[in-house]
Every structure is written in C-alpha cells, then in structure tokens.
C-alpha cells in the first residue's frame, strides 16, 4: 500500500512538472483584427506590418520569459460586422491570451463588448474618446483621443487669437465623435462655432459645403474632424476656392499619405499629431526622441514606406502588452490585465504612458505636438 501511494505521488509530481514545463514552453497567443485592406487600410496596413516585424524581432531574441509569441491576424476590411466575427473566432476558436485589435472607431466598438464578456485584455487603436472613456475593465487604447485633438487645436487657435470658426466634419463614426467632442469644450477655450457642414465617406467634392463656409461672415479658421480620403478632398477644394482662413485637420490624417493625396494644397495645414512624425526634428533632450527615431528607421527600412502615427500606435500597444506579460510572468489574463493597468513611464511613439484604474489611455495633452505642413513635410510648431 505504501509503495502504491509513493508511486501515485511520484506520478502526480511528474505530471505536475510536465504541465508546468508545457505551460512555460507553450506559445503566447496574441490575436489581432485590423483593417489591413479597404477604406481604412492606411490605418490597418501599417499596424499589421508593425505588429509582424516586432513580434518576429521579439521571438528572435527569445520571446517573452522564454515563450515565443504566436500571432493570429485577421483583416476586417473596415467592416464592424467582420471585426466582430473575427474577434469571436480569436476568442472562441484560437483561444488567444490577449487582443491587439480595432483600427477604426466603428470596428473597435464592435470588439470591446466581446473582450469584456470573455475577460480578455484588449488594446485598441481607435481615435474616438468612447473607445476608452469611461474606462472598462478589460479595454485599453494607445492613440490620442478626438477630445484631446479638439483641445490641442483650440489651444493653438487661442494662441493665434482666432476664436470664431466653422467646422466641416465627416459623418463616419470618428468624424461625428470628434465633432461632438469639440462642441463640449469649445466654450472652455473661448471658441465660437459660427457655422457647420458635413460630408459623407463617399463624397468626392466638398465644394458646395466649403462655398457656404467661405461666404459666412466672421469666420477666422476652419476645423475638419475626419479621417481617410475625405480630409484630403476638403483640403484640395479649400485651396481651389481660395478660402482665406487657416485650415486645421485632425490626428486622423497623421501619415504622409495625406500630404500626397492633398498635394500642394496641404501647405499651411495644421494638425495635432504624435512626435513620431517629426522624429529627427525633436530636440536631443526630448525623452521620446530615441524611441521614435528607432521605430521610424526600422519601419522604413523593413517596409520601404514612410512611417505613420498609426503603425506607431501598434508599436505602443505591443510594447505595453509585452512588458505587462513580462511583469506578470504569466499569460493569466487577469494578471496581465492588472499589469497593463499598472503601466507607468513607458515611453512610446505617442507619448509617455501612465495608466491607472480610471485612465486606460495614460496620455495627457502634452503627448500631442502641433504640426504644420511646409514644403510637403511636417514641421514642429512647438
């Protein structure tokens, strides 16, 4: 009897040891749902490229705590229904340990409830404030919010003594959200909105709306909440009509693609954006300079394409997740979630991240830089 008991105890210890070893050697499964193709591909494509090249680098260096990362990447084409379907597959079939998902506001809002229901950490890349505020337990995000963009633009307008504006906003989820956020803080900054216009995601000519703005007496500047091709069309039409006021775009156009689409008409346009777009132009004592320069060099060398803030948001999300898993010494979802929430002083491409139980973004207004397009390139205004 004693011999049998010892044998069973030995067997149990061996099984436990094997289980621990298997868990330690099992890959860390990270799932991504991104808009790599379709109308939002300018967001999802650099996100996907960034994720794949940095995961390859991390794995080549031994992974996280000795465990390799296994990626599961799906392309939702910018469709919220597809985003929800793919996120469901990642959670129920692929059994991922964490999600880096949601290129647009619409696709992200389709994914967040699934992450909450399944209690899986999610870091998203949407621009709108509702993608992170109010804070939900399992959901985090890296891009600056549309509310922050409004505040940064209004700060700059006040510095230029421009207090009466018109707005022309996209009717997509991001454009509508940013318009609404701007209207919640305009009085705080002493900004009066004299006139408003909108355009749809498939509109190819905004001349009628801009003609109305041009004829509106008292307007001193124009703000365009939007992303995708719409803001480039607005910019071209704006210059064709010779609207005499300064034009502000949102952080939703933070890539060289916008300058290429808008052409010479982009000259003089201002927008709030991440330090990444002016990486080499930052002063040497800027804490972000090394991070953004290194990321820019690697991305452009690997892809042959200009860097964008959107790929930078993925870099930040991946680094936050990798460091959280490293600190947790586990892929236990609750432990990883807790460590993400404890992120402090992480220097990313979007700013220095300091999260808390009530702030799952961790960036303040100083993370935004005000840029102006001059001679076909980004110029740092402050």
Automatic annotation (TrEMBL):
InterPro entries: BCAA_transport (IPR051010), Leu-bd (IPR028081), Leu_Ile_Val-bd (IPR000709), Peripla_BP_I (IPR028082). The keyword Signal applies. Coiled coil: none annotated. Pfam families: Peripla_BP_6. Residues 27-362 form the Leucine-binding protein domain. Gene3D superfamilies: 3.40.50.2300. Keywords: Amino-acid transport, Signal, Transport. GO terms for biological process: amino acid transport. Residues 1-23 form the signal peptide. Belongs to the leucine-binding protein family. This is Leucine-, isoleucine-, valine-, threonine-, and alanine-binding protein. It comes from Variibacter gotjawalensis. The lineage of its organism: Bacteria, Pseudomonadati, Pseudomonadota, Alphaproteobacteria, Hyphomicrobiales. The gene is braC_1.
């Amino acid at each position: 009897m004693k011999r049998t008991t010892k044998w069973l105890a030995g067997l149990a210890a061996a099984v436990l040891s094997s289980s621990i070893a298997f868990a330690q050697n099992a890959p860390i499964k990270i799932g991504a749902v991104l808009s790599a193709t379709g109308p939002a591909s300018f967001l999802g494509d650099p996100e996907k490229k960034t994720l794949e090249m940095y995961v390859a680098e991390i794995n080549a260096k031994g992974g996280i705590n000795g465990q390799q990362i296994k990626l599961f990447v799906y392309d939702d084409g910018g469709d919220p229904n597809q985003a929800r379907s793919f996120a469901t597959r990642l959670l129920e079939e692929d059994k991922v340990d964490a999600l880096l998902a949601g290129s647009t506001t619409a696709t992200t809002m389709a994914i967040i409830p699934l992450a909450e229901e399944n209690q899986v950490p999610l870091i998203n890349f949407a621009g709108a404030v509702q993608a992170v505020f109010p804070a939900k337990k399992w959901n985090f995000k890296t891009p600056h919010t549309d509310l922050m963009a409004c505040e940064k633009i209004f700060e700059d307008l006040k510095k230029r003594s421009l207090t009466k504006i018109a707005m022309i906003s996209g009717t997509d989820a991001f454009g509508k959200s940013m318009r609404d956020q701007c209207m919640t803080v305009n009085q705080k900054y002493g900004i009066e909105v004299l006139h408003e216009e909108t355009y749809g995601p498939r509109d190819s000519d905004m001349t009628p709306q801009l003609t109305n703005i041009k004829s509106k007496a008292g307007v001193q500047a124009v703000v365009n909440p939007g992303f995708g091709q719409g803001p480039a069309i607005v910019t071209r039409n704006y210059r064709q009509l010779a609207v005499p006021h300064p034009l502000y775009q949102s952080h939703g156009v933070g890539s060289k693609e916008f300058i290429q689409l808008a052409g010479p008409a982009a000259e003089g346009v201002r927008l709030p954006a991440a330090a990444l777009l002016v990486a080499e132009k930052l002063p040497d004592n800027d804490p972000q300079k090394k991070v953004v320069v290194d990321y820019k060099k690697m991305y452009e060398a690997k892809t042959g394409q200009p860097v964008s803030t959107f790929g930078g948001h993925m870099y930040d999300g991946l680094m936050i997740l990798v460091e959280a898993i490293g600190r947790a010494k586990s892929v236990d979802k609750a432990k990883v979630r807790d460590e993400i929430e404890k992120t402090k002083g992480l220097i990313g491409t979007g700013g220095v991240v300091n999260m808390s139980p009530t702030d799952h973004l961790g960036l303040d207004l100083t993370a935004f830089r005000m840029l102006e397009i001059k001679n076909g390139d980004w110029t740092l205004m402050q």
